Amino acid sequence: MSNTPSPSPQTPVIALENAHLSLGSDAASVHILKGISLHIDAGESVGILGPSGAGKTSLLMILAGLETLSKGRISLDGTDITGLDEDRLAALRRDLVGIVFQAFRLIPSLTALQNVAIPLELAGRDDAVDMAKAALQSVGLAHRLSHLPDQMSGGEQQRVAIARAMVAKPRILLADEPTGNLDSVTGEKVIKSLFQSAADANAALVLVTHDANLAAQCSRVLHIEDGVIVRDSKSAS
User: Fold this and answer.
1) pLDDT band for position 11 (50/70/90)?
2) Is residue 237 scored above 70 in pLDDT?
3) Count H helices, E strands: the chain?
4) Which residues on neighbouring strands pair with residue 220, listed in sequence order?
5) Residues 120-179: tens digit of each pLDDT
6) What value does the CA radius of gyration of the chain take, rounded to a whole number of Å?
7) Which pLDDT score is estimated for 1?
8) Coil, strand or helix: which one is 147?
């Protein structure tokens, strides 16, 4: 019999244990997430489906460290962030998490290159511009470096947002309805860029959407209703 130890299980990039989120206080308190436990590995893509008000976006904000749990624990890439102060959370988000919003959230007075480079510059990276150029090239926008957001289409703006989210090669990529403001053809191009960027970085991708067909492109699909996961299944795609 071999004495070689078996490899240890992979540490989840995201580990959520008995997560509760309540907003408001006393009689006005609203219980949004109700005991969610969830593990997501590097390279895994997870689509989150559910009706409006089910808690999808709140769950995403918890995973981004933008909302604080009322009860439970959360670890990102092996670091327990449950009780971290805002300064440490901000540093962790900068290093580990990329976020793509439906509304793009680009700075209108900055070019595509500047929008992508700014988080790296704020982190003190000397190679911020070179990295931003490479990120924009990876999403097919090498020809748009000097364009302002209002000089680009909606799909191009969203791809700039993806490049900005991925430029620091985060371990976790979170996307909240990233094609909600786009037509179907443009949305397909954006989703291709999103999945490719996550795959290139072996990042865990968590995608909130109302579109079951889009969620099915992920390797795993979660269904949330009334603040709880009612189904967690491998995608058939």
Assistant:
1) confident
2) no
3) 7, 10
4) 46, 234
5) 998 889 999 999 999 999 999 999 999 999 999 999 999 999 999 999 999 999 999 998
6) 18
7) 42
8) coil
CATH class belonging to 43-68+85-234: alpha beta
> Amino acid identity, residue 137?
Q
SS3 per residue for 39-78: EECCCCEEEEECCCCCCHHHHHHHHCCCCCCCEEEEEECC
Which pair of structure tokens corresponds to residue 197?
């960027």
Mean predicted confidence (pLDDT) in 26-37: 87
Distances (CA, A) of 29 to 25, 37, 51, 65, 115: 4, 22, 21, 21, 38
- Candidate from 16-20, 82-86, 201-205, 227-231 with smallest mean pLDDT: 82-86
Cβ atoms of 119 and 94 closer than 8 Å: yes
Give the global pTM: 0.89
Residue 97's identity, in one-letter code, is V
What SS3 state is found at 20? Answer: strand
Q: Note whether 86 and 65 are within 8 A (CB).
A: no
CA distance 226 to 184: 29
List the domain boundaries for the chain: 43-68+85-234
Amino acid at 187: G
Give me 165's structure tokens. 């989210």
d(CA 33, CA 55) in angstroms, rounded, equals 6
